[in-house]
Specification:
By secondary structure, the protein is mainly α. The chain contains 14 helices and no strands. The two termini are 24 Å apart. This is EamA family transporter.
Length: 296
C-alpha cells in the first residue's frame, strides 16, 4: 500500500515539475496567457463531465462560498500559471524550478504573520537558508544584482508566482467541506473564466500566438497531467500515508524541474544552482524536521 502511495506521489511531483518544462517549451509556440486559458478550459470541461454529480450534491455548500472559491481558482490556478508562463519568456526553466522551492517557506512566513502560528528556531534557520537559495538563483549567483535591484524580469515574475501560490495554499484552511471533485470543478471554472481577459489583453497587444503542434502538445500535457491526473494521484497518496508525509514529496518538485530542464531542454546547471538547491531543500528539510519534533 505504501509502495503504491510513494509511486503516486513521485509521479505527482514529476508532473508538477514538468509544468515548468512545458511552459518553457511553449515559448514561441503558444503565448503564455492563451496557453493558461486553453489549459484551464480543457481541464474544466473534463472535470465537469466526470464530477458534475458530485458538484450537484455539494451545491448547497458551494453556493455561499462561491466568491471565496472563485478567488481561489483565480489566484491558485490562473494567476500562478500566467505569471509562471510569462516568466519563462525571460528566464530559464532551471531558475524557475529552483525559485519555486521558496513556496513552503513563504507559507511558513504567512502563517506566522496572519495566524500567529508559532515558529521554532529550526524553522527560522530553515526559512533563512531557503530564501537565501532562492535569492541566489534570482540574482544569477551575484548578490550585487539584488543591491542594484537588477533582477531578470522572468525571475521577478517567478517570485510573484511563488507569493501568489503560497497565499493560495494558506487560504486552503478555509476550504468548505465538499468533495475534491466539486472543489476542482469550481476552481477550474473560475480559472478558465478569469484567464480569458488576460488572453484578450494579450491579443489586443498584438502578442498572442495561436498554438502550433508543439504548442498544443504543451497545452494538452498541462491540462492532462498537472491539472488532472496529478490531483488524483496526490489525493490517493494522501489517503494512503497521510497529509504530513505526503507533503514532504512536494519538495521534489524543484529537483524534478531542474533535472528535466537539463535533460529535455539542455539547459546549463551552474555552480550557483547547485548551491541554491542545497540551501533551499536543506532549509525546507530543517524547518519540517523542527516542526515534526515539536509535534511528537
Amino acid at each position: 500500500m505504501h509502495r503504491q502511495a510513494y509511486i503516486f506521489l513521485l509521479l505527482t511531483t514529476l508532473m508538477w515539475g514538468g509544468n515548468t518544462i512545458a511552459g518553457k517549451l511553449a515559448v514561441d509556440h503558444v503565448s503564455p496567457m492563451l496557453m493558461a486559458t486553453i489549459r484551464w478550459n480543457i481541464a474544466f470541461a473534463v472535470l465537469y463531465c466526470v464530477g458534475r454529480h458530485k458538484l450537484a450534491a455539494d451545491w448547497e455548500r458551494v453556493r455561499p462560498r462561491l466568491l471565496y472559491l472563485s478567488a481561489m481558482g483565480f489566484f491558485g490556478f490562473a494567476a500562478f500559471n500566467i505569471a509562471l508562463y510569462c516568466a519563462l519568456l525571460f528566464t530559464s526553466a532551471v531558475n524557475a524550478s529552483i525559485e519555486q522551492a521558496g513556496i513552503p517557506m513563504v507559507i511558513f512566513g504567512l502563517n506566522f504573520l496572519i495566524f500567529r502560528q508559532r515558529l521554532f528556531l529550526g524553522q527560522m534557520i530553515g526559512f533563512v537558508l531557503t530564501i537565501a537559495g532562492v535569492v541566489l538563483t534570482a540574482t544569477h549567483g551575484d548578490l550585487r544584482n539584488l543591491l542594484l535591484l537588477d533582477l531578470n524580469a522572468g525571475d521577478a515574475l517567478v517570485l510573484v508566482a511563488v507569493m501568489v501560490y503560497a497565499g493560495y495554499t494558506v487560504a486552503l484552511r478555509f476550504r468548505p467541506a465538499i468533495h475534491w471533485l466539486s472543489f476542482m470543478i469550481v476552481l477550474s471554472a473560475s480559472a478558465s473564466i478569469t484567464s480569458i481577459p488576460f488572453a484578450l489583453g494579450e491579443y489586443a497587444a498584438g502578442s498572442a500566438i495561436w498554438p502550433d503542434a508543439t504548442g498544443w502538445g504543451c497545452i494538452l500535457y498541462t491540462a492532462a497531467f498537472p491539472s488532472l491526473l496529478s490531483q488524483v494521484f496526490f489525493i490517493r497518496g494522501v489517503e494512503a500515508i497521510g497529509a504530513n508525509r505526503a507533503g514532504l514529496f512536494i519538495n521534489l518538485v524543484p529537483i524534478f524541474g531542474t533535472l528535466l530542464s537539463i535533460l529535455i531542454l539542455g539547459e546549463t546547471l551552474h555552480l550557483y544552482h547547485v548551491v541554491a538547491i542545497v540551501l533551499a531543500l536543506g532549509g525546507i528539510w530543517l524547518a519540517e524536521l523542527s516542526g515534526r519534533r515539536v509535534q511528537t
